[in-house]
Design a protein that fits this description.
The complex is a heterodimer of chains A (376) and B (342). Chain A is mainly alpha-helical and 376 residues long. Chain A contains 15 helices and four strands. Chain A has helices at residues 11-51, 70-76, 81-85, 93-115, 120-143, 153-179, 186-194, 201-212, 220-225, 237-266, 270-277, 282-309, 314-319, 331-340, 344-375; strands at 53-58, 61-66, 86-87, 150-151. In chain A, the strands form two sheets. Chain A has a two-stranded antiparallel ribbon. A two-stranded antiparallel ribbon of chain A has the order 3-4. The radius of gyration of chain B is 26 Å and the shape is flat. Classes of the chains: A mainly alpha (376), B mainly alpha (342).
Chain lengths: 376, 342
């Protein structure tokens, strides 16, 4: 990276320029690194320490007592186990089938890695992924897909992420495809569809609490027509969960929509025109031209939304207060509730559990899907 | 039926039938979006009785609109509202600008320079941070503990850390910066609270700004890195030959070319800061409170004060919506380029 200065410049300027050139990389990068170190890394280490200790507030300060893995033990095997994992019972037939399929796929993937003689690191990685995924599937099968079971905070969080993102993506894609047509007035739709993203999630929470009111809410005639005027969304476990999911979809579909729309409008017109001339159906055009073009964008979009969705708190907190019982409680809300009860160590332990979970899913997602999309 | 609509950038006008169906679906979704907003809007003009006695839809027809909520929010507690609003505007604008400046220069550095941070240095650094925390927990004053840790870090940097061979690359740094977004805020909010308490910065703009900049940096780096990578390097090379410094190249060539990306990222980060609730809840008390906290605060012991809440939410969304309408074209383009490579 040699600097070539024009002959007219004075030696002094040349010296200053080359010094600037030398420190430029660090000067550009360092502020970001320092901010992240100060606000993220340092607290993250302190948080790890907190999750391994118990804090007691006393007159004139707080007392820190190191308890090793006790907070995690309480969470995973002790008094908090029911909140985190829910009630575990024998899975229904569907639960067994799902568990069987996931277990088979995972073991097949590990077996293939061993057959192909992949490096040890890859085999260990796949084995870990297989164990965690089979475990989580068992948890889903034994709580969500079981007649006597009741999903805990962990499963509820994953449910919000899975259902929310799937529907947001599908609705967003559908709307983007419609909006990409040459329709008069589509700019209006584009702006309107963007609005929910701009509203504070707290406001969305209260807005949907008003809408969910079957008595005085604006949708009252609809509930009466459906014979549901005495039904309270927030008193029914599934009603409350669905209300949270609807709120989340309402708020975040715009994000999917706007980026997908840009991707669809940004693709080249020539292949589409050629396909139309060749007499290809709309479905063929979507399947073979549009979809491959927007697939890389889609994977990134889903990754971004997945990372954010795991941390959902505002909506369940305001809409249902985590209730009834803990039916709509997410991991973040759970950590917040524990923190409010001044069990700071326990709260930090939940936060760390969530961190592991998000990192696991993000890594798994990137490893499996992203690799495939970029090579295809 | 549906599949005939899966037509993308159609160079031709859709048939009238398809247009009708498209409008039906788009209009339906627009209704789903607009109806809750309409409800919010009219609730802001309702008397408590009109809210509590059942659904009323049309002002002047089935209920008498009233400005009582507006008078309360803008008049009676007007000074509080103005303070909350200025806090929100000030904190979000400063945070978003700082995040954009710091984040985009980091993103630029990661696309144009090669970095090789030594693994050993990082371990030494983490060791020193752990040492500082240990010392503080053991009761040493925090300033002294940090000074000791920094001194030790510099000494070991000059001696042992140089012996380590293994180095990381740019993608590792980028991943590290981006991975900060994976971290749930609850995981760090307690230590951040303790740190700002020690620095006596709780309930100030500075605490919120620093936290918001850090939590939103990953987004800026993520989106801007690919934006910069999409700008041809030849432009910069020729400027370099003419003797322009790195900073000048960045300011006068790269930044003007990335305006759509910058605008989209700025708006995105601004909205995140504007609407942020959890961190503001922990880090502020009275003076530096932001609007989302005020919205929640209307959930009083007598039940939610829907009318005040609606007014506050309306005040909050008007500026962002105005900006979104003005910048809508940029948003789509800007977010897209960032998302392509990820």
């Amino acid at each position: 990276m040699a600097t070539i200065t024009s002959s007219a410049s004075l030696p002094a300027t040349r010296v200053r320029a080359s010094l600037g050139e030398r420190i430029a990389p660090a000067a550009f990068l360092l502020p970001a690194v320092l901010v992240v170190l100060f606000v993220s890394i340092f607290p993250l280490i302190l948080s790890l320490f907190l999750s391994l200790s118990r804090l007691r507030f006393e007159a004139g300060g707080l007392q820190v007592q190191f308890v090793a893995l006790d907070n995690y033990r309480k969470l995973l095997f002790g008094s908090e186990q029911k909140v985190l994992f829910g009630t575990i019972a024998t899975p229904s037939p569907i639960g067994w089938v799902v568990l069987g399929i996931v277990a088979f796929l995972m073991l097949a993937s590990v077996y293939r890695a061993i057959r192909e003689a992949q490096p040890g690191r890859a085999i260990v990685g796949r084995a870990i992924a297989a164990i965690v995924l089979i475990g989580l599937t068992y948890l889903i099968a034994a709580s969500l897909l079981s007649p006597e079971g009741r999903p805990g905070t962990l499963v509820v969080t994953m449910l919000y992420v899975a259902v929310g993102i799937t529907l947001q993506y599908l609705i967003g894609l559908g709307l983007a495809l419609l909006c990409a047509q040459q329709l008069p007035g589509r700019r209006f739709f584009r702006v309107v569809f963007l609005l929910p993203m701009m509203i504070t999630p707290v406001g969305v929470g209260y807005l949907f609490r008003m809408l969910a009111d079957t008595n005085k809410g604006p949708l009252e005639p609809l509930w009466v027509a459906l014979g549901m005027q005495d039904f309270a969304w927030s008193n029914n476990a599934w009603g409350a969960r669905i209300a949270v999911m609807i709120g989340d979809i309402w708020q975040w579909t715009p994000f999917m929509f706007i980026v997908l729309l840009a991707a669809i409008e940004g693709q080249e017109v020539e292949p589409v025109e050629a396909a139309i001339v060749d007499g290809a159906s709309n479905w063929d055009i979507f399947r073979h031209i549009t979809l491959p073009a927007i697939l890389p964008v889609s994977t990134t979009l889903i990754l971004i939304r997945m990372i954010e969705a795991f941390k959902i708190i505002d909506l369940p907190n305001i809409l249902t207060n985590g209730g009834p019982g803990t039916a709509t409680e997410t991991l973040t809300l759970y950590a917040y509730r524990i923190w409010r009860a001044l069990d700071i160590g326990g709260s930090a332990a939940i936060a760390y559990l969530l961190l592991f979970l998000v990192t696991f899913f993000a890594t798994l997602y990137v490893r499996t899907l992203r690799g495939r999309v970029s090579t295809a | 039926m549906m599949k005939s609509f899966f037509r993308s950038t159609s160079p031709f006008k859709p048939s009238p039938f398809r247009m009708a169906i498209s409008y039906l679906i788009l209009g339906g979704w627009a209704l789903i979006i607009l109806f809750p907003l309409y409800w919010l809007f009219i609730t802001a003009f309702k008397l408590p009785a009109a809210v509590n006695n059942g659904p009323f839809y049309l002002p002047f027809v089935d209920f008498q609109p009233s400005l009582h909520a507006w008078e309360y929010v803008l008049g009676e507690v007007g000074n509080d509202t103005i303070r909350l609003f200025t806090n929100t505007v000030g904190v979000s604008l400063i945070s978003a600008t700082l995040a954009l400046v710091i984040g985009s220069s980091a993103a630029y550095a990661l696309t144009r320079f090669q970095f090789h941070p030594k693994v050993g240095t990082i371990f030494v650094f983490i060791g020193c941070v752990l040492l500082a925390i240990g010392l503080i927990v053991l009761g040493m004053p925090w300033m002294l503990a940090i000074a000791v840790a920094i001194a030790l870090f510099v000494i070991s940097l000059l001696t042992i850390a140089r012996r380590f061979e293994r180095a990381l690359g740019n993608s590792d740094i980028a991943f590290w910066l981006i991975s900060q977004r994976i971290m749930p805020p609850v995981a760090v909010v307690i230590p951040i609270y303790i740190v700002f308490q020690q620095l006596r910065l709780l309930d100030t703009w500075i605490a919120l700004i620093i936290t918001y900049v850090a939590t939103n940096l990953p987004i800026v780096v993520w989106l801007m890195r690919d934006y910069f990578a999409s700008i041809p390097y030849e432009l910069e090379e020729s400027a370099q030959i003419d003797g322009a410094s790195r900073f000048r190249i960045f300011n006068q060539i790269v930044l003007p070319l990335s305006v759509p990306g910058l605008v989209a990222t700025f708006l995105f980060v601004l909205v995140f800061c504007w609407n942020e609730y959890l961190l503001a809840l922990f880090l502020t008390n009275a003076r530096a409170q932001t609007m989302p906290l005020a919205v929640v605060a209307q959930n009083a012991t007598r039940g939610p004060q829907w009318w005040y809440m609606s007014v506050l939410v309306l005040i909050m969304i008007v500026p962002v919506i105005a900006m979104a309408i003005a910048l809508e074209r940029y948003i789509a383009r800007g977010l897209l380029v960032g998302a392509v490579k990820g």
